[in-house]
Amino acid sequence: MKLYKFTKAEHAIDFIKHRRIKVSKVDELNDPFEYISCNLADSRFRKVMKNAIKDKRKEIGLISLTKSRKNPLMWAHYADSNRGVALGVTYTGNPRSLVKVNYINKRTNPEILVNHLYNNTIPTDEEFRWIVCSKFACWSYEEEYRVEVNLPPQNENGVNVGACHFLELNSIYIGYRCERSWREFQKVADEASKSGVWKSKVKINVVRPSFSSFDIVVQRNRSLWK
Q1: What's the pLDDT score for residue 117?
Q2: Domain limits for position 40
Q3: Which pTM value belongs to this model?
């Protein structure tokens, strides 16, 4: 499946060179309802969920991807206000590990937790996946797919970065405010492909706001590429 990863330019360079990717901690995600999308008004259900996610918050990280390359909100929120890039990737891992986020308008009743409440058990991995991959509909513009991975250690800059062998890079879309030259990205990508980091040559594109819609589109006039 063809997907996109929005990121800052420096994180993109690291991914292109070394096939390493930034992994987000659950506690640092921007949605305050992450992992708690069901109705937890009943304190008993809150206790079940607290026990279920306690260890996962410490051990699990997320890699968020999207189907949307042209959405200006994605460029603004996740590509450093158009100074970053969108990496065009193909997911090659276990299909069961790639989860499409479900967008809902109302926090659902926690029937899924009832049996666990009375049996003093915690949700199964499948049940937990359904709970953690439902988000409020206002986030639907993200068209998110996510992969749960073991949280890698932090690098020297305090960022959790890990090897990523289940994403194959095929294209790079450079934000129109990016301070790095497209030639730098081309050079890094060509060197990585020649050394076997990527299976084939990576295509470079520079983007701009559309003249006729509210999309971010490819700049076809290469003489205007920076």
Answers
A1: 62
A2: 2-224
A3: 0.89
